[in-house]
Each structure stands twice: as structure tokens, then as C-alpha cells.
Amino acid sequence: MIVTTLKDIETIKAFLKGYGSIAIIGCGACAAACQTGGKDDVMRIANILSTDFNITVKTVVDEACHHLLTRKQLRDLKDAINNSDCLLAMTCGAGVQCLAELFPDKKTVPSSDTHILGNVLRVGQFKNYCSMCGECTLDQTEGFCTKTRCPKSHVNGPCGGMHDGKCEVFPDKDCVFISIYNKRKTNSSKNVSKDIKGRDFSKKIDELELPRKNEHLRKKNN
Ligand code: SF4
Ligand code: SF4
């Protein structure tokens, strides 16, 4: 899940300063789960802002990062949004940019800060386990991503600052390389190389088209 937190209301008001009418659009997926863009959140922010602004639209799309779906779901509200002075996106950064693309003539501002791809530990508690590097090497690291869970993003560690198995940067946390070592002691890992492959930043891409269904398997079998 993409984890977001709401900016404080004074910051949001400062973004909107000078605009009279505001369309508010939330996201029913990750933002709703983070309580930053669901129906209740949109209504709450709309109520607060209504003392200073004319709120023209209060709505929530299913997935604000989904361009086709969002365009379709906002079709009936297109004129109301275009006639508003400003669009407040209660979504993650990807959703904000989707809305900015769908409404190119509209000033679009974010209500939230977008933090991490978060594993959900329990309601409202998340941990960042993956930074989406584009080349997963978890087979080498016993299921612990050092690129993400080491604050220095080391791939071969521990660093010289590790102390008693604890991390130099966050001493209350275990050094991820010690976690890997301990797990390796208790299982029978095969095919583990001594050096973990370093991060190839060229694999971090900004556009991706998935192969057609099973195309990669077909290629392999030919
Ligand atoms: S190695 Fe890359 S893809 Fe795998 S968990 Fe870490 S950041 Fe994510
Ligand atoms: S102690 Fe371990 S987890 Fe912490 S910064 Fe050094 S290598 Fe990374």
C-alpha cells in the first residue's frame, strides 16, 4: 500500500489561498485506508475548508492513480471541476499527478505527503520493506531487503557502525545484516553468493508495459 499522511490544515489552506472555489477529490484505495482520502476524510476536510472556500465537488474515485478509471468516474463531474478555481487531490502523489493530467487547465494541489510502499502490520501501522528497485535480490538476503531496510541502503554489510547487532543509525533496531546472518544460521540456504549484487539504477524505470499474458513464458519455451 502507498502510505500517505495528511498535511496540516493551515498548509492546505495556504496552498489554496487566492482561489475561491475548490473541487475535492479523494481516493478510495490506499488513501482511504490511510484515512487521508476516503469519503469521511473528504467530508471532514470539506467541512473545515467551507468556512473560507466554496466547495464545488466532494467525491472519491476508486483508484486515483488509475488514469482510465478515474477519467471515466469523473466524466459527470468534468464541468463542475473545470468550473472550479482549484482542485484539491486527497490522494498519493501518483493520484495528484493523474488528476493534474486529466485536468490540465486546473491548478491541482496535494492535501497529503506520500511516504512509502508500506507493508500493513496492523491498522494505521506500516513498514517499508521494498523500495521497488526493479531487480529483486531477496533470494540472496534471506527475505530481508537491505536496499530498503538498511538506512544507508548498503548491499554488503554490516557497516563499521553496527554495535551488538544493532543499527548505527537507529540503535533500537537490529542491523539488517545481522538478521540475515541469524536466519542463515537457522536454515539451509542454497545458491547464496558472498557478495550481494549492488543496485543497478538503470533498472529503476519510470514507465513499464507488461508483456501480454504469458508472452515471457512462450519466448522461453521457443
Ligand atoms: S531487492 Fe528491490 S524489489 Fe526486492 S524488496 Fe528490495 S527494493 Fe524491493
Ligand atoms: S548498522 Fe547495519 S542496518 Fe545500520 S546502517 Fe550499518 S549496515 Fe545498515
Query: CATH superfamily membership of the largest domain, which one?
Result: Response regulator
Indicate the structural class.
Answer: alpha/beta
The CATH class name of the largest domain reads Alpha Beta
CATH topology of the largest domain: Rossmann fold
* C-alpha end-to-end distance: 37 Å
Can you give the mean pLDDT?
92
| Biggest sheet record | 4 strands, parallel
Bound molecules: iron/sulfur cluster
Helix content: 25-40%
State the helix count. Answer: 9
Strand order of the largest sheet: 3-2-4-5
Radius of gyration: 22 Å
Name the overall outline: elongated
Low-confidence stretches: none
Order of helices and strands: EHEHHEHHEHEEEHHH
Which percent range describes the beta-strand content? Answer: 15-25%
Q: Architecture of the largest domain in CATH?
A: 3-Layer(aba) Sandwich
Write down how many β-strands occur, each being a DSSP E stretch of 2 or more residues. 7
Number of domains: 2
Task: Provide a concise account of the structure shown.
The protein is of the alpha/beta class. The chain has 9 helices and 7 strands.
Overview of this structure, please?
The chain is of the alpha/beta class. It folds into 2 domains: 2-116, Rossmann fold (3-Layer(aba) Sandwich), CATH 3.40.50.2300; 130-196, no CATH class. The protein contains 9 helices and 7 strands. It has helices at residues 9-16, 30-33, 39-49, 67-73, 78-82, 93-102, 146-149, 176-186, 215-221; strands at 2-6, 21-27, 54-61, 86-90, 107-110, 112-122, 125-128. The strands form 2 sheets. A 4-stranded parallel β-sheet has the order 3-2-4-5, sandwiched between helices. Helix 6 links the parallel strand 4 and strand 5 (107-110). The longest helix is centred in the first third of the chain and has 11 residues, at 39-49. The mean pLDDT is 92. Bound molecules: iron/sulfur cluster (2 copies). The site of one iron/sulfur cluster has 15 residues, from helix 8.
